[in-house]
Design goal:
Layout lengths: L2 H37 L7 H6 L5 E3 L7 E10 L4 E7 L5 E8 L6 H8 L1 E8 L2 E8 L2 E7 L3 E7 L5 H9 L1 E3 L1
Antiparallel strand pairs: 1-9, 2-3, 3-4, 4-8, 5-6, 6-7, 7-8
């Protein structure tokens, strides 16, 4: 074999390797993008509702076991800037979520101590939430600055369940 033939053979091998590497990168990139588009969380709030609200909207990415989103429960009041939705389980119990515009110049700490007993804090991506008892209900309240997220479960001793739900909130 002559030197020019050897160089041509080596050149062809490098081109083939480059071609295979390029095709592999295209397959990996396309597959990754497709996987993301198919598995990304869908926005639970319809576009018309999002456009009518001036407050941030939050929805949990993880639900307690045996609970499912009740799509028929989603209601909003754009005039008062409130959104309500719930999650239900097979036995009919529900977790209610209310997002509302936070009143200006409101003493949130006084509100917590006046409304809740056995208060404990839990970290969320949007600040610390307070969870406590309000009568026979477990209630979690998150002050996001512009809005309050109030989560209520009509049973006692479910603070850890609400803490997990509230720490999984995502803003939409």
């Amino acid at each position: 074999m002559t030197i020019p033939e050897a160089k041509r053979k080596i050149g062809n091998r490098h081109r083939n390797i480059l071609l295979v590497a390029t095709i592999a990168m295209i397959i990996v990139t396309t597959g990754g993008t497709s996987t993301y588009l198919l598995t990304r969380p869908k926005n639970p709030f319809p576009a018309a509702l999002r456009q009518s609200m001036q407050i941030p909207l939050y929805f949990p990415t993880q639900l307690p076991p045996h609970f499912a989103y009740d799509k028929t429960s989603l209601t909003s009041d754009p005039q008062n800037q409130t959104v309500f939705y719930s999650f239900k389980n097979a036995s009919g119990k529900s977790i209610n979520v209310n997002i509302q515009l936070k009143p200006k110049d409101y003493d949130i700490d006084a509100f917590y101590t006046r409304i809740l007993s056995n208060i404990q804090g839990t970290a969320t991506p949007y600040g610390d939430a307070k969870i406590g008892m309000m009568g026979h209900a477990t209630v979690g309240i998150l002050d996001t600055g512009k809005a309050w997220v109030i989560v209520k479960y009509n049973d006692t001793d479910f603070a850890s369940m609400l803490a997990n739900l509230m720490s999984s909130l995502k803003q939409y």
